[in-house]
Amino acid sequence: MALHHLRPYLFSTAARPIKSIPTRPVEGQKTGTSGLRKKVKVFQQENYLANWIQALFNSLPPEDYVGGTLVLGGDGRYFNKNASQIITKIAAGNGVGKILVGRNGVLSTPAVSAVIRKRQANGGFIMSASHNPGGPDNDWGIKFNYSSGQPAPETITDQIYGNTLSISEIKIADIPDVDLSSLGVVSYGEFTVEVIDPVLDYLELMENVFDFQLIKGLLSRPDFRFVFDAMHAVTGAYADPIFVEKLGADPDCILNGIPLEDFGNGHPDPNLTYAKELVFTMFGSGAPDFGAASDGDGDRNMILGRRFFVTPSDSVAIIAANAQAAIPYFQSGPKGLARSMPTSGALDRVADKLNVPFFEVPTGWKFFGNLMDAGKLSICGEESFGTGSDHIREKDGIWAVLAWLSILAHRNKDKKVGERLVSVEDVAREHWATYGRNFFSRYDYEDCESESANNMMGHLRDVIAKNKPGEKYGDYTLQFADDFSYTDPVDGSAVSKQGLRFVFTDGSRIIFRLSGTGSAGATIRVYIEQFEPDASKHDLDAQIALKPLIDLALSISKLKDFTGRDKPTVIT
Q1: Which of 564, 337, 546 is nearest to 452 (CA)?
Q2: CB of 9 closer than 8 Å to CB of 17
């Protein structure tokens, strides 16, 4: 990325001369639910990234960063190394005292949160476009996390956007590029860069959360097989040290374990569509007992048993129901449970049985952070393959895998070799027998024309405005329909227009949202849920059980009429 030709120094400290670069606003720098995401070529435009970073510093109180420590890392995708140098120099130019950066610019999103919390840093930058493809022609992203390790709230991201509209100068230190390949400390006057091992702090935290000896006992069994697909993304840097070196898993259990800047030309989204190799392995003959995958930046996960898929909504509910018995960190029981609004109600039923507080929040992990900081929330999840707890302030893919390994290890700890092991499917079916099954599916229509997508949402808002409780939709009776809004119970902040809901008297739900995680176009997400208490019906295929609701959703929305789409891009 080119920077404007430098003007004379504004001021200088020993070995840290600070320069001012004139700039002007550029369009399109409003952040979505998880930071700013665009195509790489957009970020490579003159001053595009530099403007946003400077606008961030202009939005923060000086006491939040001057002389302080910030963490920097990312998922290893293309442009991260160049961006690391730009961010480091602008941080130095704005008076930051120290940057902690992962070796080669690599830190998973959960690891950034962990490092911020352990090192008591003022905050941190995460360079990632999450589960979106990487490479010169694909996506890049940036977001900022606060001192608790949680994503910056909308009050700050809105200020950042406002400052991008009026920015006129970039403050940058005229220092050499930092060698990110070697661990160690380099100083430029009062400014210090420390290149850290990306795994150590995170691994130490995981050892404090889980019983590694219990898990190691499971993974060392000759009658238990495990496979983890890193999808050539950031968890490849963590899989071998954690699963193989610490927990004794077979080295061959790691699929696609070498992180690549373009994720091996893959789409690092751990779902049934994009994690094809893992799905083929787990649904094939001679399948392993347990399979899992994580995404680009390591904060999402997919859980599979032998020829059995665990929905993310069920996964967080099952983890919550078993956490006290299987995971030492939760030995006193969870303080509270929470899910994003589109996620199925399976977790609600666990909270009710455990008699702990429950919260329904908008999509976006930042909405869980205040609840955690206030001591109200322990375990939470999103249907979009995000699961986590208050050990950090981000969702955490490897944490979810370790949680499932803990549950399986606990259930099988007294089983002798040769005895039938309790399987992933057994755990899920026992859960359904206790709590009932929430059939759930999500239809994603990616890269829709934005105007058409917005017109469809406008049509649905008109439908909601005209409908009243008690109206019939075929065999379903409307309980209410609304545009979800949320008031934070901790600080009173409010957000609106978070998703259109049609909720029926039998507990069934249809939800429509436009996703904010893409870099171009619009993604329409349609969520369909139906609760089934009858165990004799739990074997139904979800798509068959939900077909009447799916047909109703497509009819209400007129999705095909507005978008021209005959079928979704992804079904989960």
Answers
A1: 564
A2: yes
What residues does 444 pair with on adjacent strands? 525, 570
Task: Name, in order, each residue with C-beta under 8 angstroms of 213's C-beta and a sequence gap of 6 or more.
Answer: none
Neighbouring CB atoms inside 10 A of 564's CB total 10
Mind listing the pLDDT tens digit for each residue in 390-428?
Answer: 999 999 999 999 999 999 999 999 999 999 999 999 999
Sheet of 290-294: strands edge to edge?
254-255, 226-229, 290-294, 301-305, 308-310
β-pairing, 191-196 vs 98-106, is: parallel
Each residue's pLDDT tens digit, 523-534: 999 999 999 999
**CA dist list (Å): 430 to 144, 191, 323, 535, 561:** 41, 56, 15, 10, 42
303 and 192 belong to one structural domain = no
- Of the pLDDT bands very low, low, confident and very high (cuts 50, 70, 90), residue 89 is very high
> Phi and psi dihedrals of 510, rounded to 5?
-125, 130
User: What's 566's domain CATH number?
Assistant: 3.30.310.50
DSSP letters along 270-307, please? -STTT-HHHHHHHTSTT--SEEEEE-TTS-BEEEEETT
Q: Give me the amino acid identity at 123.
A: G
pLDDT in tens, 20-31: 999 999 998 988
DSSP-derived letter for residue 221 is: -
For the segment 254-277, what is each residue's pLDDT rounded down to a tens digit?
Answer: 999 999 999 999 999 999 989 999
Q: Which of 95, 2, 3 is nearest to 57 (CA)?
A: 95
Q: Would you say residue 107 lies in a domain?
A: yes
The enclosing domain of 267 has a CATH number of: 3.40.120.10
Q: Which of 42, 254, 72 is nearest to 137 (CA)?
A: 42
Q: Is the dihedral of CA 298, 302, 305, 306 positive or negative?
A: negative
pLDDT at 35: 84
Distances (CA, A) of 15 to 76, 83, 392, 492, 498: 29, 22, 36, 46, 48
3-class secondary structure per residue, 427-475: HHHHHHHHHCEEEEEEEEEEEECHHHHHHHHHHHHHHHHHCCCCCEECC
Q: Is there a single domain that holds both residue 179 and residue 234?
A: no
Tell which wins on pLDDT, 13 or 237.
Answer: 237
Assigned domain for 6 exists: no
3-state secondary structure of 192: strand
Residue 493 has pLDDT above 90, yes or no: no
pLDDT at 518 over 80: no
For residue 442, the enclosing domain spans 437-571
Last residue of a domain, one of 435, 468, 492: 435
Backbone angles phi, psi at 551, to 5 degrees: -60, -40
Q: 2 falls in which pLDDT band (50, 70, 90)?
A: very low
> Which residues are tagged catalytic?
130
DSSP 8-state assignment for residue 5 = P
Please count the structural domains in the chain: 3
